[in-house]
Amino acid sequence: MHITALAGGIGGSRFLVGLRAALADDLPDAQITVIGNTGDDIWIHGLRVCPDLDTVMYTLGGGISAERGWGREDETFTVREELAAYGVEPTWFGLGDRDIATHLIRTQSLAAGYTLTEVTAALCERWQPGVRLLPMTDGRTETHVVVDDPTGATAPDGTPLRTALHFQEWWIRYRAQLPAHEFVLVGADQATPGPDVIDAITGADVVLLPPSNPVVSIGTILQVPGIADAVRSTPAPVVGVSPIVGDAPVRGMADACLRAIGVETSATGVALHYGARTEGGLVDAWVIDTVDAERTAEIDAAGIRCIVAPTMMTDEAASAALARVCLEAARTP
Ligand code: GDP
Ligand code: CA
C-alpha cells in the first residue's frame, strides 16, 4: 500500500503525524511519500532555508517546537541577536541556533553539488520521519507576492506602484496584511518535478491533500509543471481535507491568500477551487468539518463526494482519526 500526500508546513505535518499513527496500527506495511512545498524556500544570511520541508521533518522526527509549530524545540536565538547587533537585515526571519545547523548542512551540500532531494534524504537520516520526504522540485522556485509598494510609491498619475515581495517577507514581516494582487512561483516555467515525484502520484494507491494552505502550499506544488496533471490522471483515489473550518482558516492567513485568487474562504470554496476529478479537477472526495455540515449538498452537487467529520487536529489521536476518515473515503467508490 503506497500513500502519497502533498504537504505544506504545519497543517500538512499535523495531518501526517496522524496518518503515520493510523497506518502503524492498521496497515503496518504501508509506505508514505510526502511531496513537500519548496516555494517558501529562501536565502537568509547566506543559508538556504526550506521552512516547509523542515517543518515536516522536525514534526515527524519529534524535534519541532510544540509551542511555535515551526523550528526546533529547546531553541535559543543567540546568532539572531548577534546579527541584529550588527544591524544586518533581514531581522524579521527567526533563525534559531539549533535550526541553523540544518541550514548549514543543506547549504554546504547544495554547494557541493548534491540535489535538494538528496540533501533532504540525508537530513532525514537523523530525524527518521517514517515517510519518504520528496521536495516538489530540485529546481530553484520561490513564491513571490505582488503588492502595492509598501513605501507608498506611486506612478506620476497617482496609481500605486506594484512590487513583488518574497512570500516569507509578505507572510512574516507584513503578516499577510498587505493585500496581495497575485502569487507568482518564480522559476515554475523551468522547473521539473523532483525524481520520483510523478511516479509517487501516478503509482500510489491513495493520494491525499492534507489541510495545507490551498494557495501557497498545495497550490504551489501543483504549479510545478506535470504535478497537477499527475493528480488529475492518477488511477488512485484523491481525497482532500478542508483547511477552512467555519469559513476561517484554523491557523495562519489562508483567507488573505484565497481572497487574492478570488476564492471564497469556505470549505466549499476550496473544494470547488480544486474541482472534481470527474470534471477534470483534482479531488474525488473532500472531508469537511462537522461545523460545516450544511455545505455537504453544494459540494456533492459539484461532483465531489463530501464527507463530514471532526477535522481539528488537536492531538495525535484526533489527527489519526481524521486520517482514518480519509483512508476510508479512499476505499469507498
Ligand atoms: P504552513 O505551510 O505552515 O502554513 O502550513 P500548511 O500549509 O501545511 O497548513 C496551513 C493550513 O492548515 C491553514 O490554512 C490552516 O487553516 C490549516 N490547519 C491547521 N491546523 C488545522 C486543523 O487542525 N484542522 C484543519 N482542518 N485545518 C488546519
Ligand atoms: Ca509554508
The largest β sheet comes out as:
7 strands, parallel
Major sheet: order of its strands? 5-2-1-9-10-13-14
| Number of E strands | 14
Shape category: globular
Sequence stretches where pLDDT stays below 50 over 5 or more residues: none
Estimate percent helicity.
25-40%
Tally of individual helices: 13
Give the structural class.
alpha/beta
Gyration radius, rounded: 20 Å
Strand content: 15-25%
Bound molecules: guanosine-5'-diphosphate, calcium ion
Mean pLDDT: 97
Question: Would you list the SSEs in sequence order as H and E?
Answer: EHEEEHHHHEEEHEHEHHEEEHHEHEH
Outline the structure in words.
The chain has a domain at 142-189. Helix content is 38%, strand content 19%. It contains 13 helices and 14 strands. It binds guanosine-5'-diphosphate and calcium ion. Guanosine-5'-diphosphate binds at residues 7-12, 14, 52, 55, 211-213, 217, 241-243, 245, 249-252, 254, 311-313.
